[in-house]
Amino acid sequence: MQRVLVIGYGNPYRGDDGFGPLAARAIEARGLDSVEVIAARQLTPEMAIPLSCAGYAIFLDAAIGDRPGALCVTPVEPCGSSVSSHHFEPGTLLALAKSVFGHAPPAMLITTAAATLEQDAEISIAVCEAAARAADAVAAFCSAGELTGQRLRAAASQR
User: Fold this and answer.
1) Cα–Cα distance, 7 to 23 (Å, whole number)
2) Which domains does the chain have, with CATH numbers?
3) Is 141:98 a contact under the CB 8 Å cutoff?
4) 80 neighbors 96 (Cβ within 8 angstroms)
5) pTM of the prediction?
C-alpha cells in the first residue's frame, strides 16, 4: 500500500474555514495504516518534505460556494514558479516538493462550501457533517488499495 499524506488546513477561528483541520483530525482518529495526517492553519514550505515521500496526497480545505457542506474533489497538479512563505496553495507546495526533492505525488483537493468565514464563528453543522463525510471517503479510498482520483471522487460522492 502506498503511503498517503493527508493535509487539512484552515483557520478554526474563522468559522467553516476550520473544515480542513477538523476533517484531518477525524481521519487521524481512524488510525488508518499507511496514512500520515497533518492538521495546520496554513500550508508551509516545510510540508514539502513529507509530501515528497508520499505515494499520494489529499488536501482538505474550505471554499466559497453555494451549498454549505457540499464536497468537491478536484485534482491538483504542481504549478507556480514563485514561492511565498505567506501564501501557499496545494499546487505550489507540490511544485516545491518536486523541484527540491525530485518527487511530487499524485494529489487531490477535497473542499467543502463554507456557510460562514466570520471571525470567532463556530463551524456550521453542515460543514461538521462534511468533515465526517470526507473522513469516510478518505477511509474508503485508502482501504480500496487502488489510489486514483476517480476512486476518491466516487467515495466522496457516495457519502
Assistant:
1) 9
2) 4-158 (3.40.50.1450)
3) no
4) no
5) 0.89
